[in-house]
Amino acid sequence: MKLLRSSALALVLSGAALPALAADSELTVFDWAGFEEPSIFQGYIDKYGDSPTYAFYGDDDEAYQKLASGFKADVAHPCSQMISKYRDAGLIEPWDVSKIPNFADIDPKFLDSPIFKDDQGVWFVPTDWGATAIAYNTETVPAEDVASLNVFLDPKYQGRTSLPDSADDVWALAYLATGVTDWTKVTDEQFTAAADWLRKAHVNVAAYWADPSEQAQLMASGAVDIAWSWNDGVVLLENDGFPVGFQRAPKEGSSTFFCGYINMKNGPGNEEKAHDFMNAWLAPTSAKALLETIGYGHTSTVAMETIKDEPAVKNGLSEIDVPILAQTPNDPAQREKQLAEFEKIKAGF
């Protein structure tokens, strides 16, 4: 698995959107590095004898720009807040869920939006979800220091922190740190307060990580002690025996997100295979593979039932008694405003 992640990451960092793992030429999946693990969609391989062809990207905005510019794929794997953008651009078409029997087991809360499902059909098949919280080196960072999100402002950690190069995740952090838990109702004053907080946090940042593998490497090398992290970076560190903690319950709270697959309009491959791929992804057996490979939860209630007692679920995906900012779809104009401001902050303005 480390070899797969390394090859995919090298492609992402090169800026190329080309197939990194060429296999079944009749289905091209545009995805985050790491999700090419065959055990996640084993049913597809059992039926067709091979994995799909994979191409990779580093973040949601990069993926959108490449697809909007003409890169051809059959399915792609955005997170929920991007779906309206794909719909508005006319890049996707509804799924035929009658060809995805396991779709019926998706927890209804993941489809509770007309952006995902309306009278025209199902535009988004949610598959995976996770948390964004504080990853820290337990040997160098006392637990009391990560009891607050303001650890990212602490002068003691100047040059020792890392944030994701993802506008959605850093704004989730900044809103939480400044008392906002619902980013669908952000005032100008709240936006300004969050931006000011991010500028202060920027002073401590050694690097903005582009991929969980990069974040894990930054921590494992000793370059940073604290990161705003997804589950998968923590899993990579744990698998390597690194002393990592995952603080999901600082007093201001933490964030959750969910992602899934869209059906690209005029995809070059086989539409039947695209639907079979989705059905394999939603099979109960994929939950354990997803958890062990990425550290994420599954959107299928039946699938989650098979892993409910796993330590990784109890430690990284259980309910917690702090505020949660759910990264659900928000106003596209507000999101673009956040993206533009984040670029200024990273540039030092």
From TrEMBL:
Residues 1-22 form the signal peptide. Keywords: Periplasm, Signal, Transport. One of its GO terms (molecular function) is polyamine binding. It is found in: Periplasm. GO terms for cellular component: periplasmic space. The keyword Signal applies. One of its GO terms (biological process) is polyamine transport. Its main location: periplasm. PANTHER family: SPERMIDINE/PUTRESCINE-BINDING PERIPLASMIC PROTEIN (PTHR30222), SPERMIDINE_PUTRESCINE-BINDING PERIPLASMIC PROTEIN (PTHR30222:SF17). This is Extracellular solute-binding protein. It comes from Paracoccus litorisediminis.
